[in-house]
Amino acid sequence: MNLNKIELLKKELDSLRPLSKEDESRIMQKFRLDWNYHSNNLEGNSLTYGETKALIMFGITAQGKPLKDHFEIRGHDEAVKWIIEIVKQDRPITENFIRELHTLLLKESYEVDAITPDGKPTKKRIHVGSYKTTPNHVKTKTGEIFRFATPEETPSKMYDLITWYREKNTDKKINKVLLAAEFHYKYIRIHPFDDGNGRTARILMNLILMQAGYPPVIIKTDDKKNYFAALRQADAGIIQPFFNYIENNLIRSLEIMISGAKGESIEEANDLDKEVQMLYKEFESLGKDIKIQKNKETLLDVYDKTIVPLAEKFYEKGNLFKQFYIKSEFHFFVDGGSSGLSFDKLIDHQRLRITGATNNIILQYNFNTLNQIGLESINHVSKVNIAFSFTGYKVDALNKIYGEDLDEDEINEIVNSVFRNHKDFVKRIVSAKKKQNEKE
Predict the structure, then answer these.
(1) How far apart, in whole angstroms, are the C-alpha atoms of residue 430 and residue 219?
(2) Are residues 247 and 307 in the same domain?
């Protein structure tokens, strides 16, 4: 469905070509500014859209922002301008080309903070234009290690990637949109350089698209959760959502370019809104203002949007441990009061207890009597505490102001932390009992 729409939009765009120099310049300037801001901000660059625009258009630096962040924007802008020229030359993608791009992007070698394999802080030298010499695996939110190609594997995997791309690119039956998206993903799975891999992947993907007559895809920073979620699904062997994600973003770029080609405004409806919102985020960073105060309506909003999904996840994970014990009980305390109702009924029942004076909610799972001879006296309590104050609430060690909800990742981290502790507790008991049995 998306690919059909893309081809229809591409035909409409082709019918409007060649574009006037004025329209082409206006369109590419918007893409260039958006591309520079969003691709760098996705990787943690602190410059706002306005600061990025001031730097690129007028050479104005942002006071109080790291020098490195300015260098990143300038390097990325040079790389983007280079790519726009490369498209006209129809230059093939090779390993040397990618190294050249990486050098242009990052400019010069530098040092970053790192951790040794045994957990000690150290410094790591980032070499531009050279493949990595040490592993660059990452730790996920769950604490697992996600592994990219090793330094030893990287040269051969990059050779294989370029060989694969050349074969696919010459096959007229291959859809170039899918080819560009898959190249992006395959490149990311290798992670060939010590730094700059995400930005390089997006540039190479857009080069493939632009060489095929499409506009560049802009992955927006406020949509990064969906972008990274699609990449994680691809890591799990399900790549179609990532294809869909790139297709949807390409549709937006095509629509912008068609509007520009017709001489219409290419300012997106929410461009000003986003710039004002980004300014407000800077304003907020000065200190959190009191937007909402504690009252019954506020607490019910927290209850519905945060506590209910938290309780559901807590109850689901707690049920995994019932098999270890003779007896288990789930409690949902509101200011110390609970009920013996079933979980489904308990959620609605406890909501009725919420008042403007409610100070505390506790989710608690009592596990009594381990189900093994000799371990009957061992019990365990797993719980999450939610405390309300005048300006916000606290879930265990995590502070939120009213109006801020726990997102899915935060809920998972809180609940998983509680039950990882429980798992470790049971594991220690089992280990100790096994040693005792061996002695006997």
Answers:
(1) 48
(2) no
My answer on whether 11 and 63 are in the same domain is yes
Residue finishing a domain among 284, 309, 334: 284
3-state secondary structure of 421: helix
* Helices 197-211/176-190 angle, 10° precision: 160
Q: CA 29, 201, 75 angle in degrees (round to 5)?
A: 50
What tokens appear for 389 in the block? 């104050």
Q: Which among 114, 157, 158, 156 is positioned nearest to 137, based on CA atoms?
A: 114
Tens of pLDDT, residues 287-315: 655 567 889 999 999 999 999 999 999 99
- What count of Cα atoms within 13 Å lies in the side-chain half-sphere of residue 209? 28
Distance CA 198, CA 42 (A): 9
Among candidate residues 376, 390, 364, the one with its CA nearest the CA of residue 429: 376
**Displacement of CA 59 from its chain's centroid (Å):** 30
CA distances from 154 to 92, 123, 150, 236, 374 (A): 20, 22, 6, 21, 53
Give how far Cα 440 sits from Cα of 374, 375, 427, 432, 435, Å: 13, 16, 20, 13, 9
d(CA 218, CA 196): 17
Q: Are the C-beta atoms of residues 42 and 219 closer than 8 Å to each other?
A: yes
Could you give the CA distance from residue 140 to residue 228 in angstroms, rounded to a whole number?
12
Largest CA distance in the chain: 89
Dist CA 150 CA 136 (whole Å): 8
pLDDT in tens, 201-251: 999 999 999 999 999 999 999 899 999 999 999 999 999 999 999 999 999
Domain assignment present for 290: no
Looking at 255, 284, 313, which one is the last position of a domain? 284
Shared domain for 279 and 304, answered yes or no, is: no
State how far the Cα of 5 lies from the Cα of 9, in Å rounded to an integer: 6
Tokens 């009061």 -> residue: 337
Write 82-89 long-range contacts (CB < 8 A, 24+): 83/203, 83/206, 83/207, 83/210, 84/28, 84/32, 84/210, 86/207, 87/207, 87/210, 87/211
User: What token pair was written down for 430?
Assistant: 């089992």
d(CA 20, CA 143): 53
